[in-house]
Amino acid sequence: MRILLKVGITAVALWVATVLISGITVEGDTAGRRALTLIAVAVIFGLVNAIIKPVIKTLGCAFYVLTLGLIGLVVNALLLWLTSELAEELSLPFHVGGFWAAFWGAIVVGVVGWVLHVIVPDEKRKKDDDDRD
């Protein structure tokens, strides 16, 4: 159940990025088609982050330290851009039009995802909080 919640939150965050950032687009003839595209892209984005991001963080540990973590913004942008390329390979109508669109889009996705994770109750977190009482 938690994985579905995370995919849903990521899909909403990606939708907000398409609304706010002019270089990020999702196309489809109906709202349902666009929603399904965003859900599929959210799954791809989750897989990219789960598989590739830990490798990059491990290999680039020194850069994270030297830049006080700011390189993470660039890494997140590149991962969002990679997600766009993978989505296009899978014939999903989701496109990120360049590095700067990916950069700002990654910031929007990160902030919106964080806000939604704070707002939406997590069953495991709620159970852990109840156990502490």
TrEMBL record:
The chain crosses the membrane at residues 7-26, 32-52, 59-81, 101-120. It comes from the Bacteria. This is Phage holin family protein. Keywords: Membrane, Transmembrane, Transmembrane helix. The keyword Lyase does not apply. The keyword Transmembrane helix applies. InterPro entries: MFS_trans_sf, Phage_holin_4_2.
